[in-house]
Amino acid sequence: MRIDIITVLPELLESPFNHSIVQRAKDKKLVEIHLHNLRDYGLNKYNQVDDYQFGGGSGMVLMIEPIFNIIEKLKSERQYDDIIYTSPDGEKFEQKTANFLSSKENIIILCGHYKGIDHRIREHIITREISIGDYVLTGGELAAAIITDGIVRLIPGVLSDETSALSDSFQDNLLAPPVYTRPQEFNGWKVPEVLLSGHDKKIEEWREEQSIKRTEVLRPELI
Prior knowledge:
Blueprint (H helix, E strand, L loop, with lengths): L1 E6 L3 H4 L5 H8 L4 E6 L12 E3 L7 E3 L1 H14 L4 E11 L2 H7 L4 E6 L7 H6 L3 E4 L9 H12 L32 E2 L2 E2 L9 H19 L5
Parallel strand pairs: 1-2, 1-6, 5-6, 5-7
Antiparallel strand pairs: 3-4, 8-9
């Protein structure tokens, strides 16, 4: 899988993609992540990428030409399954979205910034808009990092235990059950006996029951 990320601040994304599971996926050549500085496609001697909005109002807007030029260049080199724009008014990023995107071969993520991008890009080039929540960030870089991490960990071969992702919260619209490890007792607090029983069926039944209970209490809208 290849992910191309277009941003005015590529340095914000260097650290999240150079550690942990994402770095492991890159080392295994299961994913390529390429950061593109939009300013490299900026206009005039100042590499301008933003301008005042027509009609007045506060805040700058990312211009259409630099974005169009870099996306056209990328599209001339390969075919993309989706061109994603990170926006607070996009569809909410959920586990099912990550599942769907993890099956794609090539995607572009365009990071929003300032007051947003020229709307003509959204009308004619963007194929999917994604939000990570109902709030506004300084830019779309952190959103792009979250989306990328959520996708990459689902690619077959990335996790050492490939069944781990299948038991994550939200995979079946339920929160994950409680988990425990050694010691069996600490400060008088004990691990539930059923988890020490070695009885696989009873353990699975307990975990399913706990998932339902936790979801009912913490996220009842998921039921």
